[in-house]
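User: two proteins, same treatment. go.

Assistant:
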Amino acid sequence: MSTPILEVVQVRKSYGATVALDDISLTVEEGELFGLLGPNGAGKTTLISILCGLLDADGGEVRLFGQPLRRQRRELRRWIGLASQDLALYPDLTARENLRFFARLYGLQGVELERQVTEILHFVGLEERTEDRVAVFSGGMKRRLHLAAAIVHRPRLLFLDEPTTGVDPQSRNYIFELIRGLNRSGMTIVYTSHYLEEVEALCPRLAILDNGRLRACDTLPRLLALLDGQLLLTVEKDNRDFLERLPLLPGVKSAVQKDGRWEIHTEQVAELLPRVIRLAAEVGVHITAIDARPPSLERVFLHLTGRELRD
């Protein structure tokens, strides 16, 4: 069995009396696009800083490529890329000048440096703006250049901390495609966000952090399987056949009726819905409203943490 590219073992970090990370343990396999989900203040940025070797943990261990990662291990840190939440760009420099600067920090020189800078600018769609000052770029363009600076040295492991902050929906989708392309090329990516829809769209496996604790770490389907789906059904008037037959339909786990509204729990929302409609038609019950709710990451998060994601 191959060694995970990243291993986190009982990592702890406190700032005075505030516990930022409380015994965090997880692994990331090579080639994964792994999500790290949590609200603001959950501990995501602190954890990423430790995993990048920028911050020391108070306890526990981080292993990168099977080797202990510490701030002084520069040879390991060279294989890491980081696009932080805050933009790390020089507005008075051009796009090309910014990438040259960051490439030199990673030891690139001469022909190799220029080749990498040109290729990465093309990859993020900024080849026609290479000589423009970053100060005139839109928010989406700055985010793409910020990503380019994190991958100019071709890291094996890339950390993206809230990479779509402040961008419009079109730019966000463009960034999503760039991330998927990097992952398809073999780059391992850890994607952190407090926007659950982003993690749900990108990451087959994810961890949920809240108040410095790891609430769950699993594949998206297994996390969604923690909860039943729901059908909320409003009918004009029940009759005896409907009352008796609805709870017996295949796929119904429970059905509770109150004031003309049914709440049906099921693992098969899509399959059960047409059965309910057919039954209503057979027995002459008029359905006035249907709300189908498959298990969602938002409901799972609420179930695990007891609060809304964005509070």
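Protein 2:
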Amino acid sequence: MPELTLHFAVLFALSAPIIGVRKAVIVSFVSLLPDLDFLFNVHRSISHSAVLLLAGVLVAILLVKEFRPSLLLPTFVGGLSLLSHPIMDLFSGATPFFWPIVRESVSLHLEAALVAGRSLRFEWTALVKWSQTPAPPAPVTDSALVGPIFTSEGFISSLLLVAIPIMMRLLRQRPFRSKG
């Protein structure tokens, strides 16, 4: 699982230019919801299933479209941020992405390199790995957050991903004036 700050920061950086900084903060917190499964005593196969999250997002979009159409864009962006969580987790370990359609977890391992020598060439490898999803969806007795909130590398990346859209917003609000 990527650290929580990266889940937040990546979505913040992508959504802030579209919906603004304030709404992007809310949308980015939505992307953290699947990792709160331990608080709600929900098994990871339910909270990280793109199939179930997509069903919930579609219901939310239909309800917002019917009752509060003005919130449709933030709801759509929030839904995408929620769906991005299991996608990001696919690259860091086994994720029950297709549960309950497929009972196994999947992980993706990608490596790419640009090799410079007598000529430039691009090399890449991709590996899809399937593994057994641990334990059937049942009440979780060991409620704890597994994984780091941030690492030293992730903290710097997250800080930049959050700071750049905020700085861009501040620079647009206050134009520079030259003296003279």
